[in-house]
Design brief:
alpha+beta, Aldehyde Oxidoreductase, domain 3
């Protein structure tokens, strides 16, 4: 399940919804990861653009990998502005065994940072500035992903 929200994520609400959706599914492990905008370089927050067709295909490949392990993966991400100390990213793995969930969430979050078609901008002095120095080129993006 992939969900895109405008603005900051309501972490308690989303985690509760996911837990309730899977509470009777007999999973022994529920491992969430919550990404929060932290204060750095004088920013007021971050802003995100998402290319949804590629993100959906990328996420579907992870759903397939999870299914092969008897697990499921869920993800929520923000589009638009997210201010300091708010959440822009939540992922969770449900699996029968904790080791599967722990290893899977780690691999998923790392690949998300390297491969998801989400562009990050700093919000600074009421301006939106591409965060080039903290961005990762997407694998296979060629010249479009090159840092200048």
């Amino acid at each position: 399940m992939l969900s895109i929200y405008n603005g900051a994520l309501d972490v308690p609400k989303i985690l509760k919804e996911w837990y309730e959706q899977e509470s009777a599914s007999n999973y022994g492990a529920y491992i969430p990861f919550v990404g929060t905008v932290r204060s750095e370089d004088g920013i007021d927050g971050l802003s995100f653009d998402i290319y949804e067709p590629i993100l959906e295909r990328w996420f579907q490949s992870w759903e397939k990998k999870a299914k092969e392990k008897g697990a499921i993966i869920k993800m929520a991400h923000s589009r638009g502005d997210v201010m300091l100390h708010e959440s822009s990213y939540i992922a969770a793995v449900f699996s029968p065994k904790r080791r599967v969930a722990l290893e899977f969430i780690d691999a998923f979050v790392e690949d998300f940072k390297a491969s998801a078609p989400i562009w990050k901008y700093d919000l600074k002095d009421s301006k939106r500035v591409y965060a080039l120095e903290r961005s990762t080129a997407i694998k296979g993006s060629g010249i479009l992903g090159a840092k200048k």
